[in-house]
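Quick start: what a row looks like.
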Amino acid sequence: MLPKEPIETYCRFVMIQVMNADRGQKSRTRKTTAVLAVVLGLAVVVLIACVGYHIYQRPLHDLLNYPVYGGMNDELKDSELFEDMQSGRSICFIGDSITYGFNNEGIPWYEPLVPYIRGEILALSFSGWKTSDLIANGDKIPSADIYVVAIGVNDVIHFDSDSVDPADAEEYREDLEQLSGLVLRISPDAKLYFVAPWPFFYEFERVENRADLYCETLEEWCDESGYIYIDPNPFILPIVEEDGLSKYSDDGLHPNAPDGVGLYSYAVLIAEHDRRMQN
């Protein structure tokens, strides 16, 4: 018969070896799981890239951001504004609630253009602003090389009377003159684009004549002052009429996301392309 102590010692030794082996197996399992997780993550990234570039034939950022209506194409790129976006110079978007991103989770109308802008992007806007409100906040205008100013829809719709008074348009012109002066004092060599007042679909008949007057006033003033006038409305209105307002706006004024901002950014670029073709 073997002594009791050596048997107990041997049993403890065997148990320790088994436990160590089990710990090693668990450690190897954890390492294997970690490696598999990394490999799986990389596979997902590659799959998304393949989908973005090869299946949909469009840049990956279009899947992660808000695409331009119909997708970016050579016609939209053939515009002075797009070339300025690609120039690497800083660009500042100024405006009201549509530039601010009201009622669509803070997505501004120009969001689909952001992936194509190579310079610094700045902005100054707030919901409800008229041109006079922007002037009152002129000290907040950031310095930039290029400005895209989209202000005026609140000038059009915030009136107690439905009648059209030419004096209102003259006041709008004076405000535009003051605003451009503020911008050029901050950035004397800046290039200025002015976007026509955005369309207003709710009770549009009530403000249609005033909207036309303000657009004409802005266009004439830009021609006289040497600034670039962009009117996206002829491109927005027929598409909304064909597809239905609810696809592009939830309240009849502000573009939703992604469809509304995609349409507005498209309309700005295609209007700019048409301006080039006509000159």
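That is the whole record. Confidence is low (pLDDT under 50) at residues 1-27, 44-64. The longest helix spans residues 4-55.
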